[in-house]
Amino acid sequence: MDINKIKADALVVGGGIAGMQSALDLADQGYQVVLVEKDPSIGGKMIQLSKVFPTLDCCSCITTPKMSAVANHANIQTLTYCEVQSIDNADGHFVAQILKKPRYVDEDDCTGCRQCEYVCPIDVPSVFDLNMTARRAIRVPFSTAVPQLAVLDIENCILCGKCARACPADAVDFTQTAYEIELEVDAIVLATGFETTPIDAKKEYGAGNLHNVIDGLMMERLLAPTGPYARVLRPGDGKEPESIAYVQCAGSRDETLGVEYCSRVCCMYAIKQAMLIAGALPMADITLYYMDIRAFGKGYDQFYQNAQAMGIEFVKGKVAKITEDENQNPVVRVELIDEGQVVERTHDMIVLSVGMVPQYNPGSVYSVGVGEYGFIKSPAPNISSTETNRSGIFATGAATAPMDIVDSIASASAAASGAAAHLEAVQGGN
Amino acid sequence: MSYKDLSKKEKTQVLKQLREEHADTVKRTQALLKEQNAIRKKIRGALGEESRTVTQVANIVDMPTHEVMWHISAMRKYDLVAEDGMEDFVDVLYKLVEEK
Question: CA of B48, closest CA in chain A: separation in Å?
Answer without folding.
Answer: 19
